[in-house]
Amino acid sequence: NLSLAVTVLIALVALIRLLWRKHSGDDHELPELKGNVSVGTVMKIFERFLLKPQGKISILVSALTVVAIAVQHGMPFVITVSLFFWNDKLLINHHAKPQNLSAGATMGIASVICIDVTGGLVCNRVDVSKFCIGEKDVNNDVASEINQAVLQALERGIGASVLVPEISLWPTTDWLVSWAKSRSLNVEFVDQNLSVLEHRKLSSNNKVCGVLVKINGGDEDKIMHMHWSGTASTILNMCSYYYDSEGKSFEIKGEKRRFQKLIKDMEDSGLRPIAFACGQTEVSEIKENGLHLLALAGLREEIKSTVEALRNAGVRIILVSEDELLAVTEVACELGNFRPESNDIALEGEQFRELNSTERMAKLDSMTLMGSCLADDKLLLVQSVKEKGHVVAFFGGSSTRDTPALKEADVGITEENKCTEMARECSDIVISAVGSLLPILKLGRCAYCNIQKFTKLQLTGCASGLLITLVTTLILEESPITSIQLIWVYSIMYMLGGLIMRMEFKDQEPVTNPPARRTKSLLDKVMWKHTAVQVLCQVGVFLIFQFAGQVIPGMNRDIRKAMTFNSFTLCQVFNQFDAMRLLKKAVLPVVLKKFNVLMVFLIVIAAQVLVVEFATSLAGYQRLNGMQWGICFILAVLPWGIHRAVNFIADSFLDRSLSGILRLEFSRRQQHRPYVSFLSIPFSMFLYISISHYYNPDNSFTFR
Q: Which end of the chain has fewer CB atoms surrounding its CB within 10 Å, N or C?
């Protein structure tokens, strides 16, 4: 908008000059391009436009052209490069393959994720995060860290479920068997070596099951082995003893609280604790007490922990399934995504389809589950949520019928081994497991956050440079910052900003940031306010220096120009570090360990010194001494200091509630009083100094 306004102003002035001013034919005009054009002529045109433009219109047009190119071409290029980096990071670290450039960043602003749980395919994966014998976690190397007798009892306890699928805690048992095989536990021998005598589930808890087995061909024919497995707290109450990793047996009475604490710690960590217990008997009966505690296992149900983490990140989850609503409701309750006491709504696909537009929009806010749905119902759900103003991701693709919903969603996600070829081609991101959704969201939000900050930085630099050029050109008919100098400044901003955009800082905690709405601007009101304040601070400081700098002894016009350009460049470098929060205590150590960032920063500073000291035609005609360099650094930091002071004053002394009451009272009394912002202070100082300098006693103004 700023560039557009200045463009209209320049076009208006150019039109007036074209209609009313006679061309004098002096050396301000460009050389004619007829016949063979020499290199000298081209260089003269280049110098005329970029190095030494003459006249207000030429200066402003040159500056505006540079800003327009920087905004329209430079920023998209740097953002594109950074998105390539984030996509590569997703592929390498999380085995997620974005199939279009913006998929990762779009996932970062997703506010609703629709997950297809048809057939329970995404609900089956379970990982063993902890496996404790006694109080020792032996998850990494079970076979070598525990006693042989305990190991055999554990193998019988896990392997017994293979013989009796009726009591298996599916799908937990299948994953436990796979985990046991990966840890070199011999759970396959039970099929040949054990005979099942009796099995049943606990009457008070159907998630606890027991089995009575006998070892075939054993020396002790009368001894039978009992094995219980299931909910850890229930199993613990059935035990009187426990084994440690060395096979020693201890009474559990004095250690029960420690095991209860271990179980609670697992639950607090998002794990599902289960336990294994065993015992021996000579009676053909499964006992429910006096058992030995074998092991405690902490299971991480991938879909459950993922859904919980996504909800904590502010993302709403809607489960959809082609299965019957009653069966899907049980899955949703297990995942914690359907709570009737919280007024959550579950609908069948036909019910959702028959609602009119108004009713459908009213129910969407509380809807967390849809069962018995067709492909058209999934598509309608995605369209309705988008119409509601949300950014939608759809995770599915187990059949080709999901293709329309994948295409319609802002981000279509499929699982590599559980999707059709057509669904994979229509999706935006292909992941290896449902657990990758949370890392994608985190990196996407981090990328989006960095893009916001980068955009704010570039707009600040472009707007401040353009305003400084506009004001000085209209008053002095020349600008202290030429077009070629602006190109140099913006190149530095893109170099540093592009590098910093690729950095991920733990202190940002992007997953805690609320997701953006569909209609929300890239820069919110707070960012626009900070941008405006920073622009005003920079423009005020440099204009005051430009017009009042001649009172400093030994500072002529050329030195003042060189210092303005140097200070403006350094100011943008410092602003990069401030806006990206690189100077915070939690971030600075991370930055100092980034060798490439420090190297680029040193190269930029060294290049700026070389430009100012040796490229005098580019920097502003004269070299600077040590004191002038010091003044440049002070001027570069001053806008940042003023900005901080303004924020501190606003946060410390302006009570929002009090101001709200005053505004309400003034509105009630209809008292319209003039308001002067404290941001006008820098411009008031500039106006006063400039008027006092250029005003003559004969009531006329003289421009030099």
A: N
DSSP string, 222-282: T-EEEEEEEEHHHHHHTEEEEE-TTS-EEESGGGHHHHHHHHHHHHHTT-EEEEEEEEEES
Q: Quick check: helix, strand or coil at residue 696?
A: coil
What's the pLDDT at 492? 84
134 to 150, 180, 235, 305, 676: CA distances (angstroms): 11, 18, 14, 26, 72
CA–CA separation, 128 vs 300, rounded Å? 6
Q: Which strand (E) or helix (H) includes residue 532? A: helix 525-548
Domain with CATH 3.40.1110.10 in the chain: 126-304
CA distance 384 to 568: 49
Per the CATH hierarchy, to which homologous superfamily does domain 1-20+52-90+441-504+522-653 belong? Answer: Calcium-transporting ATPase, transmembrane domain (1.20.1110.10)
pLDDT at residue 37, rounded to an integer? 54
**In CATH, what number does 98-117+321-432 get?**
3.40.50.1000
Do residues 447 and 516 touch, judged by C-beta distance below 8 A? no
For the chain, give every residue range classified as CATH 3.40.50.1000: 98-117+321-432
Separation of alpha carbons 432 and 437, rounded Å: 10
Q: Are 678 and 646 in contact (CB under 8 A)?
A: yes
Give the distance from CA 521 to its chain's centroid.
16
Residues 6+ apart with CB under 8 A from 106: 391, 410, 411, 428, 444
Residues of the chain where predicted confidence (pLDDT) is lower than 70: 1-65, 68-72, 120-125, 143, 161-175, 184, 186-192, 206, 217-221, 503-518, 550, 552-554, 579-597, 616-621, 650-704
The C-alpha atoms of residue 483 and residue 58 are separated, in whole angstroms, by 10
Q: State the pLDDT at residue 72.
A: 66
Using CA atoms, how far apart are residues 650 and 645, in angstroms rounded to an integer? 8
Catalytic positions, written as ranges: 116
Neighbours of 513 (CB within 10 A): 16
What are the phi and psi torsion angles at 700 (to 5°)? -135, 155
Quote the CA–CA distance of 385 and 370 in Å, as a whole number: 13
Q: How far apart are the first and last CA of the chain?
A: 31
> What architecture (CATH level 2) is domain 126-304?
3-Layer(aba) Sandwich (3.40)
Neighbours of 280 (CB within 10 A): 13
What's the CA gap between 307 and 434, in Å, rounded?
A: 9
**Could you tell me if 226 and 246 are in contact, meaning their C-beta atoms sit under 8 angstroms apart?**
no
Cα(123)–Cα(437) distance, rounded to whole angstroms?
Answer: 14
Quote the tokens at residue 168: 């298996």
pLDDT at 697: 41
Tokens of 661: 């009451």
- The token duo for 113 is 């994720």
Distance CA(654)–CA(673), nearest Å, equals: 18
According to the model, what pLDDT value does residue 161 have? 65
User: Among 445, 435, 440, which Cα is nearest to 307's?
Assistant: 435
* Measured distance CA(628)–CA(635) in Å, rounded: 10
Q: Is residue 171 reached through a cis peptide bond, with omega within 30 degrees of 0 on the bond before it? A: yes
C-alpha–C-alpha distance, residues 442 and 510, integer Å: 6
Tell me what pLDDT residue 594 has.
Answer: 64
Convert the pLDDT of each residue in 231-290 to its tens digit: 889 999 999 999 888 888 889 887 888 899 999 988 887 788 889 999 988 888 888 888
Q: How many CB atoms lie within 10 A of CB 580?
A: 23
Q: Give the CA count within 13 Å in the CB-facing half-sphere of 22.
A: 1
Write out the residue limits of the CATH 1.20.1110.10 domain(s) in the chain: 1-20+52-90+441-504+522-653
